[in-house]
Amino acid sequence: MTEEFHDKARRLLDEHARDLDAATLSRLHQARNQALRQHRPFGISWLTGRYFAGSAIAACLALVTVYFYQVQPPPLPSIFEDPIQQETAENIELLDDLEFMAWLVIEEDVPIAAATSS
What we know:
This protein is mainly alpha-helical and about 120 residues long. The chain has six helices and no strands. The chain has three domains: about 1-40; about 45-70; about 85-115, no CATH class.
């Protein structure tokens, strides 16, 4: 019932809108534009407000980015005398590559003279 009512009402309104003269259409457009102007908060148009909001968001993102790139974690205290062990402790993700770690251990055991001669 309501679907039929809506369709009939829409058809009747469309027919009446097509039959309106130019003076009435002009007054309707002027009234609509005035209502839209009065609806704008603080006299700011929708387009200006959108650019202001976009600029504010971009400025906030820039400030957050600069802050996080300037804040650096404090260096870890040196707990190992050997720089290789200290580097391994600081970069623990190197332990994920077991083949590299095995090669590193093997290279540590080989004397420097033997490593440069081959």
